[in-house]
Design brief:
By secondary structure, the chain is of the alpha+beta class. The chain is 37% helix and 15% strand. It has an eight-stranded mixed beta sheet, with helices on both faces. The protein starts with a helix and ends in a 9-residue tail after the last helix. The mean pLDDT is 95.
Length: 218
């Protein structure tokens, strides 16, 4: 995809996420890795609903700003996902309400923040890791991401929000939407003893769709 098309795509998908209430105000950020090793990223204090393609931050492979506005303070978070997930070409981070709520619940397993509730959740997100709280923009979050050793494409930052990588921007957006909807389902069903997918059903999905899930006993 050409540079101009990619810029338009970031703005189009950002606006879609914002207009549906998936990240309020100037929260959330998006990045896309480019063929030269640099990336396009949304600027700091920018609303995803009102992005200007020409003002997106263009970073070189060294992470330095080449053109556009100053980038989001979450650059360390994005960098860590690209470094540990070699297939990642895009990263999306939101402050979506139900995912943030999920991240604060006491019973959440940090190795699998959500149980295997639906096929699409496993197909698009796999398992979701929960990381402890870090101040937004804290470089230490990069070390926490690196500690996951690239096993998770879907990560929840406690009291903050989800961050998801994908092999395309659209895939990352669809996955983070699926994560938000599954968090919503979890909250709706909490305390109602719902049926989750069985180990046999998970094995069938894994084989049929070639999923790679982090080792975790359900």
């Amino acid at each position: 995809m050409s540079d101009s098309r990619l810029r338009e795509e970031i703005c189009r998908l950002g606006r879609s996420l914002f207009e549906r209430g998936l990240t309020p105000g100037s929260s959330g950020n998006i990045s896309v890795k480019l063929d030269d090793g640099g990336w396009l990223v949304t600027p700091t204090n920018a609303s995803l609903g009102f992005l200007d393609p020409a003002r997106l931050s263009r970073l070189g492979a060294d992470g330095k700003l080449l053109t556009g506005d100053a980038p989001t303070k979450e650059v360390p978070l994005h960098t860590a996902l690209y470094q540990t997930r070699s297939a990642a070409r895009a990263v999306v981070h939101l402050h979506s309400t139900h995912s943030v709520a999920l991240s604060m619940l006491p019973e959440i397993d940090p190795r699998a923040a959500l149980p295997p509730m639906t096929p699409y959740y496993l197909m698009k997100c796999g398992h979701t890791a929960l990381l402890p709280y870090y101040r937004p923009g804290d470089p230490a979050v990069a070390d926490a991401i690196k500690g996951l050793a690239g096993k998770y494409s879907s990560v929840l930052l406690a009291n903050h929000g989800p961050v998801v990588s994908g092999d395309t921007l659209e895939a990352a957006v669809f996955a983070i939407e699926e994560l938000e909807e599954t968090a919503k389902l979890y909250l709706l069903l909490r305390g109602l003893n719902p049926r989750y997918l069985s180990p046999e059903q998970i094995t069938d999905l894994t084989k049929t769709f070639g999923l790679t899930l982090p080792n975790h006993n359900h």
